[in-house]
Amino acid sequence: MPDIARRLVVIVLFEGVDLLDVTGPPEVFGLARRESAEAADYQVVLAAASLDPVTTGAGVRVLPDLTFEDAATRAIDTLVVPGAVEFDEERHVRPLVDPELVAWVKKLAARTHRITSVCVGAHLLAAAGLLDGRRATTHWSTAQQLAADHPEVEVDADPIFIRDGNVWTGAGISACLDLSLALIAEDLGEAVALRVARQLVMYLKRPSGQSQFSVPLQQVSTTRRIEDLRHHILRHISEPLTVVDLAAHAHVSDRHLTRLFKNELGMTPHAYIESVRVEKARHELESSDATLDRIATLCGFNTTDTLVRAFRRRLNTTPTEYRRRFRVPRTG
Question: Whole-structure pTM over 0.85, yes or no?
């Protein structure tokens, strides 16, 4: 494909599409044009099957700039494929995958330098065969379905976005902003992306490997015993908190405790405790000037090395790098 003098960003538009998936990336690219003369080369357009207004999932009507047929004649720098979902009678979420739309995505991708999906838009890329043999992510609520429907795709539900070659996939809806910042950083450098992030009142940028989840977002337990243990762990997070101690607190055997955690929270007691400690350490890194030694002690890691290993394992970054990216400046 010849060099693209003007970076044409085409966002796929269709009935029921998630509104933020569509409007988020243009906001980021628009701010990039303000922050860098070089970014004036970005041209963001919305493409749909026709030029008729499209009603998004939020009920807001959006006007396309051009048709898929017209877009298929252009040299596209970045194709952004948003998603849409519907719910069944039991309120189970299901991504919408229209065969005609998939065919257009496949055709447009053949004209594209860089292909991206936002949230459940990954299901459209997978249906078009664009994720075969690649590692990809999507919203956590549909990740299992993506893996089941497309076993040829290596689905990782944890990161907020993944790049595999020229294909980028994003997780939750708000991750479209992180993904767009990453694209700008690739094109124009970290300094420009940082200025855009500041305009968005965001931190630049969450590392692609950062988990979609924090501890408060994880599955809520259904038994009073586990809820009591969770609160006990939070209150005593700086202490050793061994399985033996927790089992004694809950008046169960060690084996029964492990079974309770796996059944209720989908992980071992050790894994859950580490996740809580990492969450507390994240808060300390974002909001305090405490040293890593102090944070390690407060969070029950005891040593800085243990803290660093947990951050690498859980967030694919280091505490120092995390603080650099996410430290909340003091005001006043």
Answer: no
Closest CA to 319 of 218, 236, 178, 301: 301
The pLDDT, as a whole number, for residue 189 is 85
**Inter-residue contact 187 to 7 (CB < 8 Å):** yes
Which residues of 58-159 form beta strands (DSSP E)?
61-62, 66-67, 76-81, 85-87, 93-95, 112-117, 135-136, 154-155
CA 146 – CA 136 distance, rounded (Å)? 10
Could you say which DSSP state residue 220 is in? P
Name the average pLDDT for the chain: 86
Secondary structure (H, E, C), 38-81? HHHHEEEEEEECCCCCEECCCCCEECCCEEHHHHCCCCEEEEEE
Give the pLDDT confidence score for residue 3 in this predicted structure. 40
Whether 119 is catalytic is yes
Pairing between β-strand 85-87 and β-strand 93-95 as defined by DSSP bridges? antiparallel
pLDDT digits (tens, 9 = 90+) for 45-90: 999 999 999 999 999 999 999 999 999 999 999 999 999 988 877 6
Q: State the sign of the Cα–Cα–Cα–Cα dihedral 130, 39, 26, 286.
A: positive
Q: Using the structure block, give the residue that is written with the tokens 């999507």.
A: 138
Question: β-pairing, 54-55 with 42-48?
Answer: unpaired
Dmax of the chain from CA atoms?
69
> One of 28, 49, 118, 119 is an active-site residue; which one?
119
